[in-house]
Fold this protein.
Amino acid sequence: MGTELARYARQIIYPGIGEAGQRALLAARVTIIGVGATGSVLANHLTRAGVGYLRLVDRDFVELNNLQRQLLYDEEDVAAVLPKAVAAGRKLRQINSSIVIEEIVADVTPANISPLVADADVVLDGTDNFATRYLINDVCVKLGKPWVYCGVIAACGMTMTIRPGVTPCLRCVMGELPAPGTVPTCDVAGVVGPVVTLMGSIAATEAIKLIVGQGALNPGMIYADLWEDSFDRFDLGGPRPDCPTCGRHEYPFLNAEAGPRTTSLCGRDAVHVSVVGTQGVDLAGLADRLRAARVGAIQANPYLVRAQIDGYEFTIFPDGRAIIKGTSDEAVAATLYAKYVGM
Ligand SMILES: [Zn+2]
């Protein structure tokens, strides 16, 4: 075994990987979209496993309340207010300097996602919202790229391995994009650290199996609730012929006919966020959840919910639109919307 391979000796000994599998890993390109909680676990495993080219895409920066579960970051990253993609790249190079890591600090949108995915062998979901996952699903199905969905909330996690044309896609299984405010988010419902590591580890193993071409892939959905000690697997059948993404090849999120839209409101230090192709918001339910999460001062009437959170003022309307005051940055507003309203 050459010195190049020596650091991977313990996984090369494993017959499922072997030297041929290691060479496949070193030749592989993986795009991880989102390097927060699950993305940290994915990037950590694939860096150590020797994936030769790792692209990290993230729109957010490191905050103190991330450290409870986002394993790549520390207090110095918080103090330096580093973007997550940058902080992750620094840490991962200390772990493995022999691979190529590309950091991209950006909000993934229909306009920029295709080149981020086009040269990847596998795409991994490290995001925290369904709007971005539906966009990933559209582009990966269109380009024929396998991708792994990985989501966590509270003490629960779920993961699916999506192989276009072979398995159902995310849209086949989840249907329409959930209405804003109906999906719990980690910022409102909380998250228990170890479930992140569990689900991220399953998803990272799926990526390794896809790359080396060995092992039994997850054919459906794996779901675990660590607090209730329940572990389940669901058979999801095959692709649905009537699916707008993998059946009819319409790709509504990639074509920006559905999903979030942000518009900076000139001179107002505010951004307007709307979500196209979904139902309205249950304002009373949203107000109750935000109050229960004690994120800030909440006012509600039948026409809007107003929330003061972290120095931002959210005004959310029944049709799902929101005006977020305190920033003119559309990516920041999209992140805040995903965190506190949820989509
Ligand atoms: Zn589908």
